[in-house]
Amino acid sequence: MKVEGEHLFNGNQQQVWDLFRDTEVMAAALPGTKKMELVGENTYEAVMNVRVGPVAGEFSGQLVISNEDHPNSYTMTVDGRGKPGFLKGVGDVVLTNQGANQTLMGYTGEVQIGGKLAAVGQRLIDTVAKSIINQAFETLDNALEERGKAEAEGRKADYQQSSEGDYAATVAKDLIKNVLKRKDSEES
Amino acid sequence: MTYKVIGKRVRRVEDPRLLTGGALFVGDVNLPDMLHAAFVRSDYAHAKIISIDTSSAKEIPGVVGVYTAEDMGEAWEPGPPLVSPPPSLEGVTFNSCRQVPLVKDKVKHAGEIIAVVVAESRYIAEDAVEEVYVDYEPLPAVTDLEKCLEPGHTLVHDELDSNLAAHLVQNKGDYEAAKKEADLVIKRKFKLDRGAAAAMENRGIVVDWDQKNQHLMVWDATQSPIPIRNGLAGRLGLRTHQVRVVAPFVGGGFGPKIMMFYAEEMVLPWLTMKLNRPVKWIEDRKENFYATTQEREQVQEVEMALSKEGRILGIRQNIIHDTGAYDPYGLTIPLNTQSHSMGPYDIKNYSSELSVVFTNKIITTPVRGAGRPQGIYIVERMLDIACRELELDSRDVRRLNFIKPDQFPYDHEIIDQAFTNLVFDSGNYQPAYDKAIEKIEYDKFINEDQPRLRAEGKYVGIGVVPFIETTGVGPYEGARVAIEPSGKISAATGVGTQGQSHMTSFAQIIAEQLSVEVEDISLVSGDTAEIHWGTGTFASRGAVVAGNAVLAAASDVRKKVLKLASKILETPEDELELEGGQVRVADIPDKSISLGELAVLANPFRGAVEPGTEPGLESTKYFGPAYGATAFGVHGMILEVDPETMMIKIHKYVTVEDCGTMLNPLVVEGQIHGGVSMGIGNAYYEKLHFDENGQLQNASLADYLIVGATEMPHIEVYHQNTPAPNNKLGTKGVGEAGAIPVPAAFAQALENALPNYDLEITETPLSPNRLFELLYRQED
After folding, report:
1. What are the chain B neighbours of A86 within 8 Å (beta carbons)?
2. Do B234 and B106 fall into the same domain?
3. What is the pLDDT of residues B434-457, one digit of tens each?
């Protein structure tokens, strides 16, 4: 499965870079993340709950950052396994300065999934993957704003972890959006 | 020959039990103290097993044991080769790699079994399966049929030097010489993909080892109970009489239930003997997608040489056939493909190269049609394409090329699935073809209906495809028929039933011979306690091979009846007749004796049986044909394509079948209805999607679309009877026939419906999505 897209952040390139390399922020951004810790140089171990339609369960795995070109790009490799199957992915993240305190984050990647997740969840996986990413961006936007505020106010930033409930709501919202989009194009 | 019972539309005697829930299926078998098994299956299509940790699964209360390959010790051995090619075949490469009960070191397809959990309930067993931790080293998966033969490609079986499972070339005449004479040579590449058999009842096994009796009881939803019994006895070091295998009612077989041995069939008997308790496993639907065999995946390059009149001068073919991770079933499917690649046509030159490849996908074994649909698909598609190029009416071209009635028996000079010469025993093709053309109202459709409907903006098309089906192959089957003292008849055959109406059609043969009511005959099929020898239900052969064994046994009983009655009634045998369960003197109806009374007398209480005779009115006989019986048929369809959704509606569906003598037309028609529904699935709905990593992506009935009542047309079935010359009943098989020509007819009708799109279909199954892509040239 191919994953690609972009998102415009309200922050300069260095701020966005720091945001992405902050374990605490990333753990907060990815819905269902139970644990994420740095275990070696650029290697993280994570435990995450994933729900794709009828398939649900805990995944544990490694996330490795490589090809770092500070503060422009890096490669992210994910290798996770759990009761519902496995997922392996590799993707490139590129940050570009858009001026006016804005940074464009672009990502492209290839994800391989297997087991129940692939066999039974196939139909929903695209939407779910997009939802996870959208949800993550929403949290990251907030986190970036909070960081700015905290810095200005001279206090420690307090991140709001997106709950699995929020995530479920996002998936439902995206599914409905898809259906409505389809209906619109039929009517037009 | 005129029959009184054979050929009549007798209602199925098994239906009351089936329809009221009174029939036994493996799932109904529940024994005291019974344990339940669940399997740990690989998520990866190709991976090395580094370690297996069963410790936390074993701690779950209610779990009796968790076992891996290592625990099986010497009982661990691969399944037997079912039909390896004989060494007498020249120039054949065949690498036999068979499935294993539990994977030892390397997983070769997703769904393969790594460990088994046995617990007090299936719930507990399933929970414990999730607690077994397998550490894998994933390997690249072998999935592409063409690329997998390239040098240096990842290997499915490391002990081999390539992914080639088998290779052979079959030649008839001289294709290259024929090609030089040709006015037109066309060449196309075909992609034929996988589907599931998707029987309503999944597989299931209940095993019970009786330590005191030293006896193993097995209920198995198999098409082949006797070979399962023989194989299990051999594997477990038992005598055959210590093992009884019962295949009770089975809810659909379609081929995959004759695969032997499935891993589960090897593991469960070992478990019951180890644990000394009954063990049950019923396959769930997801397992059915991952663990039950599939079919039809091939890539073919085909060349056809023709004269300008449309005479087929020759065919050259290169088949790459996917056997999946193992090849227990040998070459049956691709040999069938070759046997059907010349269709019903008189083709003098044929050259076919076959490569069978291993991939990291589920094993393929015959599924209703078994390689035949692929052969019919390519020859009929090539003919349609050639007729367009030659600007000839495809109906005339088919008539021109049919094998003529005086050419039978027609020796094709190549070998078939039984490794004997491919000989078509009999046939009369053109009348059946003409009848289909007439019944579908071909001319009226082309000249009146289609222009009118096109003017209304409707996309309607017609397809008519003839086909042959090689049926009724050996080696043999047996039957036992006995008259009970009650006057009722008991019979048995080793050919188990998965819905084929054996209990009715075979009873009709007996009723004909003994002049009793069909209802008075009780036939057991699929219980090794009732008959010792036999092979199973496959290859459209029940009515031919078992049917003629039943006939032989019933006629022998009839002889015994007449001989004994002649003595008792003091009348010569030729003056006796059988009627309504009585033997009577033809001219003196009062002078009679019932079959029951004769059965009592045939088992003397005092005195002795006469020297040279046996007690009882009973006989066991066998039948084995020298070669098969070739059935014929034609399917015609008119369909409409919705140009926006690409959904299909079939307006008319006509079949003409020639399966020789029909035992029961109701049953024949039922077989055709079932076959057509499977064929429509194969043509337009049912495709198993594997990704390049060997992951099956639609392993549920929500995503894998089985044809339902809404997709089924009304089917008109017409019959023609060209009796098979090599068996007494004159029967030919019909079990697979319905599925064989449908994808080819579908493709022809679609092309006819969409004339403005320059559509040329060379793949199956299609789908609404795929048709859309083909029409708008959005290739994958």
Report:
1. 43-44
2. yes
3. 999 999 999 999 999 999 999 999
Instruction: Report the gap between the CA of B118 and the closest CA in chain A (Å).
Output: 19
Residue B350 near residue B170, CB atoms below 8 Å: yes
Residues in chain A with CB shorter than 8 Å from the CB of B697 are 118-119, 122
Confidence of residue B672 (pLDDT cuts 50, 70, 90): very high
**Strands across the sheet with A43-52, in order?**
A2-9, A103-114, A85-97, A73-82, A55-69, A43-52, A33-40
Domain limit, last residue, from B607, B623, B639? B623
Domain boundary among B603, B623, B643: B623
ipTM of predicted assembly, 2 dp: 0.79
Find the domain containing B44 and state its range. Answer: 26-139+201-251+256-291
What is the rounded distance in angstroms from the CA atom of residue A34 to the CA atom of residue A86?
A: 17
CB contact under 8 A, B695 and A83: no
Domain count for chain B: 3
What pLDDT is attached to residue B780?
46
Residue of A1, A110, A120 to mutate for B, most B C-beta atoms under 10 A: A120
Q: What is the pLDDT of residues B196-212, one digit of tens each?
A: 999 999 999 999 999 99
Q: Do A83 and B130 touch (CB under 8 A)?
A: yes
Q: Give the residue among B745, B731, B736, B738 at the shortest CA–CA distance from B717.
A: B738
Report yes or no: A90 at the B interface, CB cutoff 8 Å: no
Domain A2-187 indexed as CATH 3.40.50.2000? no
Mean of pLDDT values over B418-429: 93
Contact A114 B699 (CB under 8 A): no
pLDDT for B59-71, tens place per residue? 999 999 999 999 9
Q: Are B558 and B651 contained in the same domain? A: no
Those residues of chain B whose CB sits closer than 8 Å to some CB in chain A are: 43-45, 110, 130, 138, 286, 289-290, 691, 693, 695-700, 702-703
Give yes or no: residues B563 and B498 share one domain.
yes
Find tokens 């490139």 and name the residue.
A92
Q: Do B697 and A118 touch (CB under 8 A)?
A: yes
Distance from B287 to chain A by nearest Cα, in Å? 11
B54 within some domain: yes
Task: Give the Å distances, CA to CA, from B574 to B570, B578, B588, B616.
Answer: 12, 11, 14, 22
Instruction: Write the CATH number for B64.
Output: 3.90.1170.50
Beta-strand (E) ranges in B229-311? 243-246, 279-282, 298-306
CATH number of the domain residue B397 falls in:
3.30.365.10
Percent of chain B residues past pLDDT 70, beyond the cut? 99
Cβ-based neighbours of B169, under 8 Å, separated by 6 or more: B91, B351, B352, B353, B354
Within this chain, do residues B274 and B306 fall inside the same structural domain, yes or no? no
B527 plus B595 within the same structural domain: yes
Q: Is there a contact between B289 and A83 if contact means CB atoms under 8 Å apart?
A: no
